[in-house]
Amino acid sequence: MTYLTWALRVLRFPFYAAGEIVKTSCQVMWDILTPGSSATPAFVEVPIRARSDFEVTMLANLISLTPGTVTVAVRNEPSTLWVHGLYVEDRESFQRGIHAMEDRLLEVTRPTGSKEDALDEVGQR
Length: 125
What we know:
The protein is an alpha+beta fold.
C-alpha cells in the first residue's frame, strides 16, 4: 500500500464515521417516533484485532459515538470489547458490523500494513 492510498483513507474516514452516526441516529429516531419498540438490546463480546492502546481506544470511542451502542468493557489479552447494542438481531451480524468498523479504523492507523497483515497477526478473526 502506498502512502497516497493511506492518505486518501485518512481523508475518507471522517465521512465514514459521520455516515455511521447519521445512519444509527435515524434508526434510533425512527424507533422513538413510531409506536412500539423494535429494540432488541444485548451485551455482545467482540474479539478485536486492534492491539495498541490508541487503536483500542479509537475503536471503543467510535462504537460509543454511534447511537444505540456503547462500549462497556475492554480486555487486553486477548483483545476483546464488550459492547451493549440496542438493536442486536443476532450476535454474529452485530460482531460483523463492529469488525467492519474496525477494518476501516485499522486501514487508517496502520499506514504501511494491510488488512491481510492484521489478519496474519492474530491468525484469524
